[in-house]
Amino acid sequence: MQFPNPLRALPLFGLCLVTSPLPAEDLPPWSPALAFTDPAAAGSVAAPQAPAPMEAAPPDGELAAPAKEKSPVEGWRLEITPFLLAAGMHGNVGVGPISTDVDLEFEEIFDHLNLGAMAHVAAGYDRFGLIIDTIYMNLEDESKQGPAEIDWRLEQFVLNFAATFRLGPFDFLERREGEKEGTWRLRLLPELQAGGRYVYLKTRINPELLNGESVSKDWIDPVIGASIILELTRRFAIIVRGDIGGFGAASDLTWIAAGSVRFRVAQQFAIDAGYIAIDYDFDDGDFSYNVMSRGPALGLTFDF
Questions:
Q1: What pLDDT, on a 0 to 100 scale, did the predictor assign at position 105?
Q2: In contact, 196 and 220? CB cutoff 8 Å
Q3: To pair with 111 at 20 to 30 A between CA atoms, which of 68, 155, 199, 236?
Q4: From residue 270, how far is each of 16, 42, 131, 135 by CA, in Å?
Q5: Considering its fold, how many domains does the chain have in total?
Q6: pLDDT tens digits, 147-160
């Protein structure tokens, strides 16, 4: 009968010493396990290291703040917004001696709208930029002028274009809560605009009285304007813009006033809801167009 050699258990015993679960301060100074806590000096005890702090996740409803937030006046930017404009029309359209009143509330516009398309594009680099707004509508309606009933059709294309210059941004308030920055802010971003408004109109009023002919006009008005973006949080902003022009160059007067609230769904996608009013006062003797369009607007903004 052979007995096991006790020396064979020494390597296993040594391994138990090296991997002892005891804290370093409870090990004897000669313990081999101390060699793994401080190889430079046996017998010294290494201070325990605290784990690296984890980044706190942004609270529900807040966008995560980037490591370094990009300034709105640095680098390239591109913004595209297709939108729906349910605008009523009020005023007067005249062709030669014949004129008719236009009176459509915004809830009635779809009953008379044959086709409509609207879009906003803004591009820029640093403080300089360019904006383009397009509106196309094809409308028809009937109205009474005394005992006569007048049918009219209107095809309208509007192209607004302007060079822009951004001021600011002006930060008036920023509240910090713990590790997250900029949850609430008050940032003002003004922008100056100068450009023009091209208008093309094709009108038919009682075609049989005009020998079946339609009248078309187009003109360009100089305009100047401004816009202001007021950021309240990383998600919410208020946008106000307007312009005024004409000054007798083509129209006697034309202007736009608009306001909207922007909700940012993601870093590159937002929803805009607001109200817009556009007014034209044009008369060249043969054709007159004195109409205001106003109503709610809803847009989807894509940032690149």
A1: 75
A2: yes
A3: 199
A4: 62, 62, 18, 21
A5: 2
A6: 555 667 788 899 99
Please count the residues of the chain: 304
Strands (E), the chain: 76-85, 88-95, 98-104, 113-125, 128-145, 148-166, 170-177, 180-205, 215-233, 236-246, 253-266, 269-283, 287-303
Cβ–Cβ under 8 Å, residues 303 and 79 = yes
Which residues fall within 8 angstroms of residue 243, CB to CB, at 6 or more apart? 160, 162, 193, 197, 223, 224, 225, 226, 255, 256
pTM above 0.85, yes or no: no
pLDDT at 214 over 50: yes
SS3 for 14?
A: helix
What are the tokens at 138? 């094809």
Q: Name the 3-class secondary structure at 171.
A: strand
- Identify whether residues 137 and 35 lie together within a single domain: no
C-alpha 57/C-alpha 67 separation (Å) is 13
Q: Report residue 148 CA to chain centroid gap.
A: 48
Does 64 fall in a domain? no
* CATH number of the domain within which 85 lies: 2.40.128
